[in-house]
Write a structure and sequence with these properties.
The structure is a homodimer. The first copy, chain A, is an alpha/beta fold and about 325 residues long. Chain A has helices at about 45-50, 120, 125-140, 160-165, 180-190, 200-210, 225-230, 260-265, 280-295, 310-320; strands at about 1-5, 20-25, 35-45, 70-80, 90-95, 100-105, 110, 145-150, 170-175, 195, 215-220, 235-240, 270, 300-305, 325-330. Chain A has two domains: about 1-125 and about 300-330, Quinone Oxidoreductase, Chain A, domain 1; about 125-275, Rossmann fold, CATH 3.40.50. Chains A and B meet through helix 8 and strand 13 of A and helix 8 and strand 13 of B. Strand 13 (about 270) of chain A pairs antiparallel with strand 13 (about 270) of chain B, so a sheet runs across the interface.
C-alpha cells in the first residue's frame, strides 16, 4: 500500500495537524511511458509553506485533496516502456509526500549513490544546494574579497551559500539561531563570523562583524534581520531575496523592509530568485559542488527524521529552528 | 548685498518656517581662481528634505548655519583669474539658496541660454532631467514595448521619465495628484494612461491601466503606491528607486514595501540610483535631451515663484503637490 499525505485544508498562519491528512491507497500502476518510484526520502523546505496559500506565486499552489508537493529521492521499481529510466535507477524529483509515485520522468534527474548518499541529493546536491549556488554566484555576483552576509546560515541553503562564498575568497558572516549552530558555522564550515539572532541584537552585532559594511546579503528570513542588513550595505551592494521564513506564517501583512532606501543611498540592488530558472545549468552546478565536496571544501549535513506519519511534527522544525542542517524525512526503508 | 538662506535648526517631520533664516550679508569677493556668480533661479527638489537630516546618506547633510544647498543658475559677474570662466558666462551648479555665490567652477557647467531658457537648465536639462534620463535608461533598462509606470509623473523627474519612455517605444502610465495633472500627462505629454492617486485607488486603477503588469516601475514616492506597483510586476521587472517623497517628512519609521516578495515571485530587481554617479555622461544626455526638445518630443514645464523671501512657502509645494511642473524659485532679477 501507498501512504500519501494529502492537503486537507488551507492554513491561516502556522499550519496545524489538521492541515494535512494521511491516506493509505493502493500502489498505482505506471501507464505507458511511466515509471513507478519507491520514495525513500523527502525534502522539507520553508518554501512548502508558500505552496499552501491559494495565491499567485512562482508555482501553482498545492490543491486541496492533492498529495503535498515535496522534493524526493527514490528508486524505480517498475517501468512501463520508459524511454530512459529502468528498474533500479535512483531518481530525484518532485515525488511528493508519499511512498510511491508515478512519473514520465519530467523534472526528474538520475543520481549516482556511490558518489553521495541519498539525502545529500535532496540537500546540498539538490534544490537547496542549487538555490545557494545560483543565488550567490549568479544573483549575488560575488567576487574575491567581498563581505558576504547570509541569514538562515546553518540551514540547507544558507550553509551552502556561505561555503561557496568562502571557496570564492569572500569574508563570510552567518546569522543563525543558537550557540550550537553558530559554533558549527565557525568550526565546521569555516565562516569568519557568526551572529546568534536568538541571543544577540543583530543590528548591533553587525557593527562588529561587518565593520566595513556588506557587499552581498543573501536573505532567507526577511523581517528585522533584512532591515538590519540593509542598514549596513556598502556601495553597489547586492541583496539576494531567496526567502522570508520569518514572515511565512504571518496572519497580518508581511513586514516590508523599512530601510529599503539604503538601496538608493548605496546604489544597491535587491533581486529575487527562483531556482527553477537555472534548470539548464543544474548539471554543471552539481559537478562543481560534487567536486568541492570530494575536496572537503563543501560540507553537507542532513537532519533526518523517520516516518511519513511524523511529517507534521518534522515540518514544524523548519520554523522553530529545532534542526541541525538540511531537514529530511525518511518515508520508506531503502 | 547678498540675501542668503541659512539652515537654522533641523526639522522633525515637515520643516516649518523656523527651519531656515534669511540673512543679508555683503557680497563676497572671489579669491584667486574663483568666480562670483549672481544667481537668478534656484531649483526646489524633494531631495532637499533629506539633506536636512543629520544622518549618513549619499551626500553630507547641510550643516546648521550653512547656506541651504540647492541647484542654481546664474551669471559670472566677477572672475579672479579663473582659468575657464569669464564675466557674462551663464553657469549651473550648486549655488545654494542665495543671491551671490563663489566657486572655483567644480561641479558647475556652462550653458547656452540661446538654446533654452534658464529655468529649463535647472529642470529638464539639469539634475531632475539627468536623474530621469539615467534612471530610466541605465537602471530601468527600458526597451520598446515595455510597460512603464512612473509615480510623481507630473513632476520634474517623472514627466521626463515618461516622455523618454515614450520616445523609446514604451507604453507609459503615470501616477499624479489631481485631474489637471493627469490631463496634462495624457494631452500634453502623450502618456498612454494616468492615475489620479488623490481620487482613485491606485491598486485598483493599475488593474485597468496595466492589465498585463509592469515591466519597469520608476518610483519617486514610496509608501502605498510602491506596494501597489510591486503587486503588479511582470517577470524580470525592474523597479528604479529614485525617491520616496511620501516618506520624507515621517516622524515614525519609513513604511517598507510589504509586497517586496513580488521581487522573488517575478525574479525582479529593485535598484537605487543617485544622479551624481553619471556626471561623466551629463553632456551626452543633455545633447540627446536638447535634441528631443527641439524636435518637440520632450516638453518642459516650470512653475516659477519669485523672491528668496518666499523660499519656505514655495518649498512646501513640493509636498502638497500644489505646483505644475518643475518647481523653481527666482531669487534675483536677471
Amino acid at each position: 500500500m501507498n501512504k500519501q499525505l494529502i492537503l486537507e485544508k488551507r492554513p491561516i498562519g502556522m499550519p496545524d495537524a489538521a492541515t494535512w491528512k494521511l491516506l493509505t491507497n493502493p500502489i498505482p500502476e505506471p501507464g505507458d511511458g511511466q515509471v513507478l518510484i519507491e520514495n525513500y526520502y523527502i525534502s522539507l523546505d520553508p518554501a512548502m509553506r508558500g505552496w499552501l496559500n491559494d495565491s499567485k506565486s512562482y508555482i501553482p499552489p498545492v490543491q486541496l485533496g492533492e498529495v503535498m508537493r515535496a522534493g524526493s529521492i527514490g528508486k524505480v521499481i517498475k517501468s512501463n516502456n520508459h524511454p530512459k529510466y529502468k528498474v533500479g535507477d535512483v531518481l530525484t524529483g518532485w515525488g511528493g509526500v508519499q511512498q510511491y509515485s508515478l512519473t514520465n520522468g519530467e523534472n526528474y534527474y538520475p543520481v549516482d549513490t556511490n558518489l553521495a548518499p541519498m539525502p545529500t541529493y535532496i540537500g546540498t546536491l539538490g534544490m537547496p544546494g542549487m538555490t545557494a549556488y545560483f543565488g550567490i554566484l549568479e544573483v549575488g555576483k560575488i567576487k574575491a574579497g567581498d563581505i558576504v552576509l547570509v541569514s538562515g546560515a546553518a540551514g540547507a541553503v544558507g550553509s551552502v551559500v556561505g561555503q561557496i562564498a568562502k571557496i570564492k575568497g569572500c569574508r563570510v558572516v552567518g546569522i543563525a539561531g543558537g550557540p550550537e549552530k553558530c559554533k558549527y558555522l565557525i568550526e565546521e564550515l569555516g565562516f569568519d563570523g557568526a551572529i546568534d539572532y536568538k541571543n544577540e541584537e543583530v543590528s548591533k552585532a553587525l557593527k562588529t562583524h561587518c565593520q566595513k559594511g556588506i557587499d552581498v546579503y543573501f536573505d532567507n528570513v526577511g523581517g528585522e534581520i533584512l532591515d538590519a542588513a540593509l542598514a549596513r550595505l556598502r556601495m553597489h551592494a547586492r541583496v539576494v531575496i531567496c526567502g522570508a521564513i520569518s514572515q511565512y506564517n504571518n496572519t497580518t501583512a508581511i513586514k516590508g523592509p523599512s530601510n529599503y532606501l539604503s538601496l538608493l543611498v548605496n546604489r544597491a540592488t535587491m533581486q529575487g530568485m527562483v531556482v527553477m530558472d537555472y534548470a539548464k545549468d543544474y548539471r554543471t552546478a552539481a559537478q562543481n559542488m560534487g567536486g568541492w565536496m570530494m575536496q572537503g571544501k563543501l560540507k553537507s549535513r542532513e537532519d533526518i527524521y523517520e516516518g511519513i506519519e511524523n511529517f507534521y511534527e518534522t515540518f514544524q522544525r523548519l520554523f522553530t529552528g529545532e534542526k541541525n542542517g538540511k531537514l529530511v524525512l525518511k518515508v520508506k526503508e531503502d
